[in-house]
Amino acid sequence: MADSIAPHPVGPHPGFLLAEDAALKRRLSNITVTDNRNSERLAKVFFGYPTEESEKFYPFITIDMIDINFASERQHSEVEYYYSADPITKERMKGRPDYIDYFPSELDEAGMDSTAASSAYVRMDQVVPVDILYQVTTYCRVPRHDIEMQAKMLRRVFPLRRGFIEIPEDGTIRRCDLVDWRASNLLDQEAGYKKRTFRKVYTVRINAEIPQSDLRRAEQVTDVNVGLEEK
Questions:
Q1: Residue 99: inside a domain, yes or no?
Q2: Closest by Cα among 195, 193, 186, 184 to 150
């Protein structure tokens, strides 16, 4: 029976959900707005609503993962995937339906090479395609900042067409779709309901895959012995 192999991750945040969370935060981390006092103000990004008062410098952005759905329309027929670090074998395998050169959310091709270096092949079971739903919320005190932020979100961060996001942990480029957005302004309870917070809520869907198995060694067959038996 083939042995499981502990992967050697090469990305900064390897692992299902960790890699996707990090990619989304990276996408949101360079959004700025302008006003009369500061030529440029960077919006901080948090997972969940910041609890410390010192952290809440407006504008800011929050990320919340709200659901994971099985993407049955992307599920392929059951197949076992193979990979080889040998350049000649790898070139011969490319294009085959059972070839894969990444381990979802953990290893890119270089990481697969490192993991598979001691084996003729490595193999893994079929992956499960899923959609991760995130809620991204922007918070602003100034109407102009709110408008600037919305314009950048819809034009550059989550465009209505051709949305994508890079996952460096496995070297893939995934779909990143804006599902919905809405205005949700509120009066700030912490300010005694005397200040308004301009808030926009975006629902975002990112494609992902969950491995059903670890990588396992698969040795190459070198000899075939055929015996004939008289009856």
A1: no
A2: 184
